[in-house]
Amino acid sequence: MVWTIILCVLIAYAIVLYRITGKNRDADKLMWAFGSIALAGFIIHMVIFCNTADNIGADIISMVLFSIQYSLEMFIANTIIFKPELEATVSSCPCLYHIFTAIYGAALLTSGFAIFHFLPRRIHNWLWLTTHKEDAKNKISHIFVGINSHALYLAEDIVANPIKDKAGKILETEIIFIDLPDYQDNPQGISVWDIIARFFKVSKETELLDNYVVLKSGKGLSNLKFWLQNEKNKLYILSDSEERNLSLLEQIWENKDCFKCTIYCHAKKEGLVNRYDNITDIQDQIKFIDSSFLAVQYLKKHESDDFLPVKYVDIPEGVDSTGTKRKLAYVSSSFKCAVIGFGETGKEAVKFLYEFGALPSEDNKKVPFQCHIFDANIDKEIGEFGIDLGVLRAPGVEHDEFVLHSCDTRSNAFRETMSKLIPSMNYIIVCLGNDDLNIETAINLAEFAEINERDTTKNFCIAVKQTQISKLNRETIDKANEAFNKCIHTFGMDETIWKRSIISDEEREADARRFFESYTELSKTFLSSLGYPIPTWEERESLIRSLSYEERTKARRQKAQDYSNTYHKTTKRILCQPHKGLSDLIYAKCEGEVHCDVKGKEILEHLAVGEHLRWEASHLMLGYKPTPNKNDRTRDLKKLHNSIRSYYDLSDVTQHFDWLVVKNSLS
């Protein structure tokens, strides 16, 4: 009867250990189980030693030390029951013997399950890979190399928004994670054929992956060849180290004949990535993800339009020549902004502010623009900014449009400078690379505004970068906004960026394609009359993949403009609210020198000038400079363009392209 009870207890304990080390893989609970059994073993050994103290002549210190030693040895199948001097004491007391046996059995079970939990993962992986090869052909698999918050958010979005076929049927999807070792474990780099060929440490993220397959050991990606040869599958390299991601990508590409799936690599859009983008073989198979770039894209297309510079300037209202009360499509105030932190996000933020802050004045010039950039290491980051925007490579910008400040945000120099500037500031972006410091800086800026009598209810925005916004930080911002008229806005959260539609570029490309196709339809007659080619989206995509570097560069620039125009539609519409009916006044075909019906000429001309200012600003940020030579076929390679000049210095034909963009944006 007693042995039956002991057996049932051990079986129940084994079930508990299985739940801990099975699907949940909870290392903390396993340690608690180990500690509890070790403590029970210590107590039972103390009892045994106390009952035999006279026989072995041990003092209390010796008994404690021996109890600790023997309680731990139980986990490696060693026990005092085999010690002749103690065997008689244990066996002479049935109750003590049964309790000891139960604890000893529990210790062995704990060791066994710990070994199963931490060591033989390669066996588990091998069995899983072997038994699921057919799934590689039938399911769409998403394979994540590296486990972090980016990967977790993306995996959750893939599960929440499954892919459907043309008939609307949900396609089966498999999520596979490969947990990488610490980078310092292998200073020579990680072989593509040996990525999961060792035992890895358990990360906090892996404990959250209850619903996914996690491969922690094995014989490398070669075991995944059936998955990687499926063109429908996706491989994501999303570790926090760009260097590591590119190293893995390079080694994978050396064996590119084995890989047919699409590969997504997390790396910023500079340096090597720019070079890789120009390799035609890579373009369909490798996609680069720049989280800083995506964070700033969020500013351009946020559903509430709270981040657009046009929301923070004065736009006069009046009655137009059609008798409609509306905004008059020009800006009567300057646009002054600041970027706090000139890292990867800061550089993208400067490009955004420069393009979307290029707004038309009443006399159809660019409203005064000035951007102050603060960074403790500004000299290292930017070099000769006025001549060449450092890594931005924008030598064509006006020198006085940017002012550099080399100071820490907690310094007196920063406080004094911002206190002077903030009364005339419209827009501030805080992106210092640390969520808590970003919030601290944003709240300090709001306080500076209040102290220096800046009205935060009008034309004032502080956009603060938050990667992982905690509940405490959220409540901190909410309380600050109660005091400072809701002028603080967060952007760049992982949960908003790491979505399948965004990472795959499906969402942005679909919007850009719609704009391109509707613009092409509007301008078809005009283009034909000029003898200009009218390419389809697919034809231009083929140019992006062509062998000609010049054609690729030009086609990619034109495609980027479709993306920009898609985002800028809202700015144009805000400038002339309500915009309904205005597009009908613009002619699809240029008749002589007439671009539109005389009824809407004044407002629509402001919008056309504004479009040219946006186009010019975007090209300057790309590094383009003006040239008088229109027929230079290599101008995109040299980053030259003959339309970088005043709108009124353009020909009527060139001007009308801006009018057609406006017409398409207001339609």
Structural write-up:
Helices cover 49% and strands 11% of the residues. By secondary structure, it is α/β, with parallel strands linked by helices. α25 links the parallel β17 (625-626) and β18. α2 packs across α4 (60-73). The longest helix has 27 residues, at 549-575. The chain starts with a helix and ends with a helix.
In short:
This protein has 667 residues and is an alpha/beta fold. Helix content is 49%, strand content 11%.
Taking all Cα atoms into account, the compactness measure Rg is 33 Å
Termini distance? 85 Å
- Proportion of helical residues: 40-55%
- Spans where pLDDT lies below 50 across 5 or more residues: 183-207, 383-388
Structural class: alpha/beta
Average of per-residue pLDDT values: 80
Main sheet properties: 6 strands, parallel
User: Overall 3D geometry?
Assistant: elongated
How many DSSP E strands? 18
Alpha plus pi helix count: 26
The share of residues in extended strands comes to 5-15%
Strand order in space, largest sheet: 3-2-1-4-5-6
